[in-house]
Amino acid sequence: MHVFSIAKPSHNADTSGPYTYPGLGSTAHGRVPDGYRVDAAVVSLGTGRTGFDRARAAILAWRPFDLDWVEVTPEHAAIRTGTVVTVTARVAGMWFQSRCRIVDVVDTRDRFGFSYATLPGHVVSGEESFEVIYEPSTGEVRFRIEAHSRPAHPLVWLTYPFARTVQCRFRRESCAAMKCALTPPV
After folding, report:
1. Contact 147, 40 (CB under 8 A)
2. Which CATH number is correct for 4-27+36-182, 3.30.530.20, 1.10.10.10, 3.30.470.10, 3.20.20.300?
3. What global pTM score does this model have?
4. What is the pLDDT of residue 184?
5. Looking at the DSSP assignment, which residues form a beta bridge with residue 101?
6. Do residues 28 and 115 make contact, with C-beta atoms less than 8 angstroms apart?
């Protein structure tokens, strides 16, 4: 079911369907299926173990989605394999609901994050990862977002240059939201 409406849709649709992406785990393992585009962004968030801990907490709070045109439901979804979320984005005056299921979680001393893959009804097919990394040799803390995607809905195929602009905006603003999450209050 594709949800396009001027009014904000409900979040009660079925989320038990199969994945719509054939390359599960590709963002973690670098094996991208043919026909899928890879996009990534990395931003430095600062330095130190405390900064990494704060960045980890920001991922757990879904801060990369803390944008004025995007929301995630359930609001405080657990970051664990199998969790289903709905990402709702307001683009060009319409609300687009996109359901995803977390397929991978990394939680080590120097890395934390997750990857989710698309479910039926998503306007693209793919997988996206959100990860914070602590580099012990330099103390640097980085946020990395990577997506493997291709259009799954005719509207996205028809407006592909615009859709790419929206994807780029999401990556850029997610990085900014993470930087903001780690900026101490004045």
Report:
1. yes
2. 3.30.530.20
3. 0.88
4. 72
5. 84, 117
6. yes
